[in-house]
Design brief:
Elements lengths: L6 E4 L2 E4 L8 E4 L3 E4 L2 E8 H6 L6 E3 L13 E3 L4 E5 L3 E5 H4 L5 E3 L4 E8 L4 E5 L2 E5 L4 H6 L2 H10 L18 H8 L2
Antiparallel strand pairs: 1-2, 3-4, 5-11, 6-7, 6-10, 8-9, 12-13
């Protein structure tokens, strides 16, 4: 999940995530411009974060994911995933990337998490870094690692009650897509 101030690349340029609206078109890595289907927000106080330390945000400093990625410092939830390149291209969680220098837990008095969903699982540009835009349909929720699934349901409990009929159809077989990124 992102935090306020994260710049998402849209058809009209970069826009703070908190200014995005349902139906707005954002740039995706594999499918060009796609519409935002849903935006959620959840605020956590200092006390909330002390009670659930696994929700404390991770600071990713500018350039920590490679030259110019991200373009500026950003805060994300611990299980938020980014495309990283090495021997293979893979989606990796912020928590798994921490080096305690450029990617590390962030001290904070509270945090607001914002989540964007498109009609399918997408990878979008956030602060100039390719980042996952989660789509929690039944198949994805089953494939998603327990910590990320628990985080999504804790942050956005309404996702659990979204019936299959209200979710948009997936544009492609996500399993095939994920196999391209996972190591």
């Amino acid at each position: 999940m992102f935090t306020p101030g994260t710049l998402i690349t849209t058809e009209r340029g970069q826009s703070p995530i908190e200014d995005l609206r349902r139906g707005e078109k954002i740039v995706t890595r594999d499918h060009g411009l796609k519409r935002v289907a849903w935006i959620g927000r959840r605020d956590f106080s200092y006390h909330d974060l002390n009670a659930a330390e696994n929700l404390r945000p991770i600071l990713i400093k500018a350039g920590a994911l490679g030259a110019g990625r991200p373009e500026r410092d950003m805060l994300v939830s611990p299980t938020h995933r980014f495309i990283v390149r090495g021997n293979d291209t893979a989606l990796k969680s912020a928590l798994s990337l921490r080096d305690y220098r450029r990617i590390k837990p962030a001290p904070t008095l509270g945090v607001s998490y914002l989540h964007i969903m498109c009609n399918a699982h997408e990878v979008i540009l956030a602060n100039g870094a390719w980042s996952e835009c989660f789509h929690p349909d039944d198949a994805i929720m089953k494939e998603t690692a327990a910590p990320q699934r628990q985080e999504v349901l804790l942050l956005f409990p309404e996702v659990a009650t979204m019936g299959a009929a209200t979710r948009a159809k997936r544009a492609r077989d996500v399993r095939k897509d994920r196999s391209r990124f996972e190591t």
